Amino acid sequence: MSTIKTKVIVISDTHGKCFPHGETLTQQVDVVIHCGDLTQHSKLDEFRQTLSLLRSFNAPLKIAIAGNHDFSLDPVAFPAKLVEAYKIDPALENDQELVTKEFGTPGEARKLLDDAAQDGVVFLDEGNHYFTLDNGAALNIYASPYTPFTEPWGFTYNPESHHAFDIDPEVDIVITHGPPRGIMDITADRRRIGCPQLFAAVARARPKMHCFGHVHGGWGAKLASWRPEISEHPSHFADIDNGKSRFIANLARLCGSDFETAGERARKNEIARSEARGCFEVSCEEIKLDSSRAAEAAGGQAAVEESTLFVNAALESGGELRHLPWLIEIDLPRRSASRNHKVAGEKPDSKRKRSPSVSSAKENVESGSVDGHTQGKRGWWT
Ligand SMILES: [Zn+2]
Q1: Which positions fall inside the Calcineurin-like phosphoesterase domain (predicted)?
Q2: Over 80: is that where the pLDDT of 381 sits?
Q3: 96 lies in a domain?
């Protein structure tokens, strides 16, 4: 099948902050993905800051979803969080003018995001979405802001109950706020908080990439090789072949002990190169190389879809955006020239696995503004 190399920057958990020293990435890419927690307190000014950060990328399409902190986008959570705020600060309840100024009226934050469509920013609700990119590729995305929680936050479900992640089997990229269970989902207090139902849904769909954030210390990327047969109740223990999988990077590896072995020198060089670029880069070749090794080991049977690149792109650490964004190069199917491109969210009629889905969304989106200044060494790792 004819494919098109597509460059995707993935970020998450920016919490209404800008990059250190107001920097931005100048690389031209096809798509930017933000996996939620656009804000810290769901305030209008924080949404505005994140929108200006998204606009600063040199990409015609910037996709964003919500996270648990973005509760004013959730019509159920918003009133509940305000009641919580009134309990902490009773004076706030009597100052509705201030509440409206900070958080906006119901729907106001969403309107800010929707209005940014003119700058190529597309805010996605939960579900499957189909895009035709400016580079001629078709992109099939599943998005979900939902995470398991017992406390009142935005876009949550009770961990004891069921949440359906209805991922299109032809999906290319899954974007969720939370991690799947077992994949870069360990919190600072050593708990796995990833969702088992999400893992099961991703294991069945086997996307090219699943990106998320939420667990900030879980920043990293893992190229996971799937077992040939997926279990009835998939789990990271049973369905990922760890012998054929590998971490591309994670914080433990990058910030680990500093022996002068050849491996450590390579690690230091990798960090220096990434910091100079301002992002951590993964090429198509790198992903394919691993897949072809996996294919060799499996007697030539495995294809690139037998692996999924999991990316935890949470940038915030210690109140700043210290972790690097990811720049991922991914092979996407060429769009079918024979079909008309429709509006966002419309499902293409193709049923064939990995066929070039069409129908879409952001045709002729305007290019995002380009911030011309260059990247310096940031020291984002410490
Ligand atoms: Zn966060």
Answers
A1: 7-217
A2: no
A3: yes
In a domain, 367, yes or no: no
Domain span at 160: 3-333
Residue 143 Cα to ligand 1 midpoint, Å, equals 17
| Residues 66, 46: Cα–Cα separation, whole Å | 13
CA of 73 to the centre of ligand 1 (A): 16
pLDDT of residue 355 exceeding 80: no
**Does residue 371 sit within a domain?**
no
For residue 15, report the distance from its CA to the centre of ligand 1, in Å.
7
pLDDT in tens, 177-212: 999 999 999 999 999 999 999 999 999 999 999 999
pLDDT band at residue 350, thresholds of 50, 70 and 90? very low
How many domains does one find in the chain?
A: 1
The pLDDT tens digits for 260-285 are 566 666 666 777 767 776 777 887 77
Question: Is residue 177 a contact partner of residue 209, using CB atoms and an 8 Å limit?
Answer: no
Distance in Å, CA 40 to ligand 1 centroid: 8
Residues with CB under 5 A from ligand 1 (ion): 13, 37
- For the stretch 190-209, what's the b/e string if a residue is b when 16 or more beta carbons lie within 10 angstroms of its beta carbon? eebbbbbbbbbbbbebbbbb
pLDDT at 261: 65
Pick the most confident of 37-51, 217-231, 330-344.
37-51
Ligand 1 centre distance from Cα of residue 11 (Å): 11
Of 14, 30, 17, whose CA–CA distance to 177 is shortest?
14
Establish if 65 belongs to a structural domain.
Answer: yes
Residue 327 CA to ligand 1 centre (angstroms) = 20
Q: How far is the CA of 231 from the centre of ligand 1 (A)?
A: 31
CA of 120 to the centre of ligand 1 (A): 24
Torsion of CA 209, 210, 213, 216, to 10 degrees: -70
Kind plus residue range of the DSSP H or E element containing 221: strand 220-225
358 CA → ligand 1 middle, Å: 33
